[in-house]
Amino acid sequence: MLSRQALRAVRATAPQRALPMRAVPVRSFAAAAGGTEGQPPITVFGLDGTYASALYTAASKSSSLDPTAKALANLGTIVDKDAKLSQILAAPTLTPEDKSAIVAELNKHAGASSETVKNFLDTLAENNRLGLLQGVCAKFGQIMSAARGEVEMTVTSAQALDSKTLSRLETAVAKSSYVGQGKKLKVTNQVNPDIVGGLVVEVGDRTIDLSVSARIAKMNKLLTDTL
C-alpha cells in the first residue's frame, strides 16, 4: 500500500483535470540498454514487454539482475493486491508532482537501492507509462525464469493443494519428458472451483487436463454425438 501522500494522486482521475494531448519528449530507457550484451533469453511482446526486455539488458550490464528481479517481484505483488493503486498508475492526468511522489513510494516498496530500478521507474513516469508497471513486472518475471532455466508448471485444482501433494507432482513431472534436461520446475497452484475436481497441469506450452469438468464435457459430447 502506498502512503497517504501518494494516494492523494487519486484526485488525478477526476474528469475536470483532463489535459489536452500534445507532443512531449519521450525518454528512452532502452537506448541506454542498447547493444547485444545481456540480451533477454526469450522474446516477450507488447509495450510492457519492450520495457521488461530493456530493463533486463540494463540490469544485466550493471550486474544487478537478482536485486532487480526481487524489486520487480515486490512491485508486482503490491500492484496485484491494490486495485486502487492500479487506477492511480493508469491515470492519464498525473502531474509531475504526483508522479514524483508515486515513484518515491514505489522505490521505497521495491526494497532496492539500485539505480537501474530507479531509472526504470523514472522513465515510466516521464513517458506516462506507469500504468504498464503490472505488465512489465509479469514479463520481467518470465524473462528471469527463462534465464534461470526454469520451466513454469501451473497446477489448477478445485481447492488449494497442500505442499506435500505439490511436491509429489513436481517430482513426477520433473522426471518426465515435459521438462528438458538441466531445467528446473517453478510450480504455481491456482484454484478454480469450476473444474469440479481433478487437476489441470500446464507445463510450458503443454496442458494435461485431468479435471472432472473435462471428463463430463467428453461424456456429454459422446451422448450428443450418439443421439
TrEMBL record:
Cross-referenced Pfam families: OSCP
MF-aspect GO terms: proton-transporting ATP synthase activity, rotational mechanism
Primary subcellular site in the record, as a coarse category: membrane
GO cellular component: membrane
Compartments reported by the entry: Membrane
Keyword Transport: yes
Source taxon at top rank: Eukaryota
Signal peptide bounds: none
Keywords: ATP synthesis, Hydrogen ion transport, Ion transport, Membrane, Transport
HAMAP family the record matches: ATP_synth_delta_bact (MF_01416)
NCBIfam families: ATP_synt_delta
Sequence similarity: Belongs to the ATPase delta chain family.
Name of the protein in its database record: ATP synthase subunit 5, mitochondrial
Gene that this polypeptide is encoded by: ATP5
